[in-house]
Amino acid sequence: MQSKKKQDKAGITALYCRLSRDDGVEGDSNSVANQKKLLKRFAKENGLSNTRYYVDDGYTGTNFERPGFQKMIEDIDLGYISTVIVKDLSRLGRRYDMVGYYMDTYFPDRDVRFIAVNDNIDSDEGESEIAPFKNVLNEFYARDISKKCRSSYRIRGSTGEPLAPPPYGYIKSPDNPKKWVIDPEAAQVVRDIFKMALEGKSNETIARILQERKVLIPMAYWQEKGIRKGGKVTQPNKYKWCKTTVTKILTQQEYCGDIINFKTYSKSYKNKKRYDNPKENWVIFKDVHEPIINRDDFELVQTLVVKTKRRAPKQENGEKNMFCDFLYCADCGSKLWYHTNTTNKEIHYFSCSNYKKDTRGNCETRHYIRADAIEQVVMLELRRLAKYLESHEEEFAKLLAEKTNADMLAEQKTLETELNRATARNKMLTSLFAKTYEDNVSGKLSDEMYMELSHKYEVERLELKTKIFEYKERLAKNSEMEQNKDDFLKAVRKFMDMDSLTAPMLRELIDHIDVYEKEGGKKNYTQRIVIYYRFVGYLELPTSEDENYKANTRKGVDVEYIPTVKSA
Prior knowledge:
By secondary structure, this protein is an alpha+beta fold. The protein has helices at residues 4-11, 32-45, 67-77, 89-92, 96-109, 131-158, 184-198, 203-212, 218-225, 243-250, 295-307, 356-359, 371-391, 393-442, 447-477, 481-496, 503-509; strands at 12-19, 51-57, 81-86, 113-116, 121-122, 170-172, 180-182, 259-261, 264-265, 275-276, 283-285, 327-329, 336-340, 348-352, 369-370, 510-515, 519-520, 525-526, 529-533, 537-538, 549-554, 557-561.
């Protein structure tokens, strides 16, 4: 008498059905329902009882990590299955190597009978000579479908249709799923995140504030709203934001109203893993949908994201100084780091992050500067700037015009050179492609080499198309230099109404500040700083004899501010 396990093994007939989106083009004959009917009828007609269905609906044949297939394999390993029936070999899979492994090794080793109905293959009748050829053809089919899908994907992406689902803050339009519309509730959270970033808060701090406010993380929010999204919830606390999520939101250009396609790519139709695409291969379509974030604010945040890499200061050392990420060493170009004196916590200062005695760098001097001193000096310089604008508005406007015009001409010359070079290469590629085609038709070039070269030329042509578009766009932006001048004037006028310097105002006015090493003795010394403003860079304002200022930064320490013109 057989054991129950042996009876189970002898009695279970696995009816495996698979359908992918690509198989759908073949019509209703491959539908899961029809596969079930065919397999059930075949099993009944051939006396194979105790049937059980294993189904994978919507899974490609090149992927063998399908849940239904893996469940069937698990039951085979447990000894429950004696027979596997599929409609044809392509239902088992579309990879020659893997299908061959299961047919020639896996099933025989486990004494499992394998039947492919429409291909007339039954392992009980011996090896099939035609099976390897059918497996090769099935893989060719998968390869061909992959090429067609990639081509369709490329065409759709190149015409501005979004290839990725809308990011947090947007949803698909009910009227047109190819368009994105703002999700008011989530969009407000995005605006708050950018606002906090502009105020100088770190990503970790922003994440903590959102958690304290009990703002749902994106995945939890989508689930609560019934919006289907890929991926799984890995964070058990639905309010616990990660700084990586904040970083992703702060760097998504889509919030400016843009569509960005081809951010990722797959290396092969057999490998479904997505890899990051270099930015030069992205295709960007601007102002496609309604923006959540102003483009100028987004670009300013990007400079902060790039600059801010250090950890937050310890609580006992006070808040992060607003000049962090603005000060740079005038000699080596490294960033100045913010410190708190270990013996006197009230003293805060900056020093070169590349100083050889502090950080084993290669900068010869420390470039030490007190935080309160730099704040006083910058405040005085901005007041001088505002005073000059107020009393000499025409001269100030003329100064800005000369500055912006000089920068515009220099950039325009560089861009025109690069644009001409890219355009010439693009024309050459057209000629090369035509010659390659003629050589292939005449038999001078094999089909394989023709495909390889044409693919290479097409990839380069698409890259050049993107570059040419960017160059033309940047040239067009030169006409916006006048707007940059107006934005700077607006920021200076805003500063006139303020009694103190704030972090948002600092970010609105200043790009960076170069700090030079001190000159003179230990008590009486001079130190030069150079301020580079946003939009316009360094400005040389006329000086007068009565423009020296003194400020008491702390008891017994005075700072005298002497405006001078930067030497050539």
